[in-house]
Amino acid sequence: MSEPIRSFADTIAPVSTAAFFAANWETKPLHISRSQHDFYQQLLTRRDVDRAISSGGLRFPSIQLARGGRFLPAEAFSRNIRSGDDYFTGVPDIDALNAEYQTGATISLPGFHRAWEPLGKLAASIENEFSHAVHTNVYLTPGHTVGFTPHFDTHEVFILQIAGSKRWTIYQPPVLLPHRTQTFDARIYASAKPLLELDLVPGDLLYLPRGFVHGTATPDGFSVHATLGITVYTWVELLTDWAQSCRSSARFRRALPPGFAKNHDIADSLKHDFLQLIRELTQTTDHEAILEAFANRVRSARSMSPPQFDANKTSDGHKAPTATHGVALKSVGSSG
To answer: What is the pLDDT of residues 197-222, one digit of tens each?
Structure first.
């Protein structure tokens, strides 16, 4: 029986976290081949995913279909169901979903950590450790299909191969550590030479720093993998907060000189004033306050472990009294 995976250290074992951060983080891919097909068994199995899809509890957009690198419209595999005066929208049509899958469509389950507790707890643990936002997606791909066309992600990617196998082709990044506002141009990778080609089998892990271009194919059988994505806060976000702090000063709220965009005679003066303002901002900023405010914002956005609902808990946090055998508790005037 595989061990539970509850932390980042568990996820990348047997590689140590120290070795990972020294050699791979934001730098180069890491492939862990474990030869232990049940490594993720207590985290997620193919049957867990099958049951989640079959239950009908996942509704669009938490269940999607993609073919040829493009997502299908929701109406191709879901329907709206009326219940009394209410409508449940995006309910998967399992027959249509299965038909699309059997003819080569990939099933995507974005944000699956919100529906599957073990993944949710792992995502919350890693988010707490990293101070960066974490999400998980699950992908089911039928055999003899090509997945999404080569592209890069603007978040850190950890691929956990759950079942079946998938071939990954990895290319050099055209942009080093792209920001999430920077888009990928597929035309430049039409004939690029791969940096790495490998097959992931159950129990394997692949780490790709953001920016590394990758494409996938499922040669035969099928593939189920979970992607653990880490959307990092960069110096861009921190410096943006720092720059925004200047709004509190009337000096910075003054208008730029009239005609600044076309009058070349004031270019030198504009440059001088700009550099002077930067020096003033650097000297007058309460840097500790900026850092603490940014950290507080990150902490408040953290998804953490989802709170648990307990129908037997009162508003003060205590358990409500329950009836004992042979005793009937009655509430006068209540029919609930």
So the answer is: 999 999 999 999 999 999 999 988 99
CB atoms within 10 A of CB 191: 5
The reply to whether 266 and 227 lie within a common domain is no
The answer to the question of residue 317 being in a domain is no
Say how many domains are in the chain: 2
Q: Which residue has the tokens 């707490």?
A: 128
CA 328 – CA 311 distance, rounded (Å): 19
Task: Give the Cα separation of 281 and 301 in Å (integer).
Answer: 27
- Same domain, yes or no: 65 and 204: yes
Range of the domain at 255: 235-301
Q: What are the distances in angstroms from CA 85 to CA 17, 59, 90, 152, 162?
A: 53, 19, 17, 44, 41
3-class SS of residue 84:
coil
What are 148-179's pLDDT values in tens digits? 788 999 999 999 999 999 999 999 999 999 99
DSSP result, 20-82: HHHHTTTTS-EEE--S-TTTTTTT--HHHHHHHHHTS---TTSSEEEETTEEPPGGGTEEEEE
Token pair belonging to 88: 């449940």
In whole angstroms, give the CA distance from residue 45 to residue 161.
Answer: 10
Using the CB atoms, write b or e for 147-169: b if 16+ within 10 Å: bbebebbbbbbbbbbbbbbbbbb
CA 272 – CA 274 distance, rounded (Å): 5
